[in-house]
């Protein structure tokens, strides 16, 4: 019997599953108020789980939301920046980018030719995609194992989109 919850996945999702998440989690719009609502939802989820995470939401180059919960450190902010840059460069979640490289029997670090001090294809950064517009920003969680960071973002976006 599996004891995994939405925040603690037991296995890594496939490329197809990650691509489906991105299609499903397309937003009708994304405003400053939406960033606050989504960020507050992530803070609520993290507090419920006593998760030592930092959370960052951006639209374009503007940071619209940032929170650092107890137990998080400035290293989490550095990871946020590195994972966010992957989303900005590839217009896909940082976990999906890393998974695509692994599916080709390589790694992002070995094959992307990008500086690993600047880019990290580890789970936790997700594109904010607006219908009929495309990727407009990022939402990032850092502080848990990468699958849990990613799952927390997916759970929050799913709840955000549920009326």
From TrEMBL:
Pfam families: HbpS-like. InterPro entries: PduO/GlcC-like, PduO/GlcC-like_sf, YBR137W-like. PANTHER family: PTHR28255, UPF0303 PROTEIN YBR137W (PTHR28255:SF1). Belongs to the UPF0303 family. This is UPF0303 protein C6Y14_09095. It comes from Streptomyces dioscori.
């Amino acid at each position: 019997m599996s004891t995994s919850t939405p925040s603690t996945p037991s296995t890594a999702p496939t490329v197809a599953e990650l691509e489906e998440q991105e299609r499903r989690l397309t937003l009708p719009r994304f405003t400053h108020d939406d960033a606050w609502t989504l960020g507050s939802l992530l803070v609520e989820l993290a507090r419920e789980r006593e998760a030592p995470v930092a959370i960052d939401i951006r639209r374009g180059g503007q940071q619209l939301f940032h929170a650092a919960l107890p137990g998080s450190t400035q290293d989490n902010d550095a990871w946020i920046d590195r994972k966010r840059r992957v989303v900005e460069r590839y217009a896909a979640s940082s976990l999906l980018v890393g998974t695509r490289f692994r599916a080709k029997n390589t790694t992002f670090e070995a094959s992307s030719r990008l500086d690993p001090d600047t880019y990290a294809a580890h789970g936790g950064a997700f594109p904010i995609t607006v219908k009929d517009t495309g990727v407009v920003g990022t939402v990032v969680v850092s502080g848990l194992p990468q699958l849990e960071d990613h799952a927390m973002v997916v759970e929050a976006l799913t709840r955000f989109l549920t009326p």
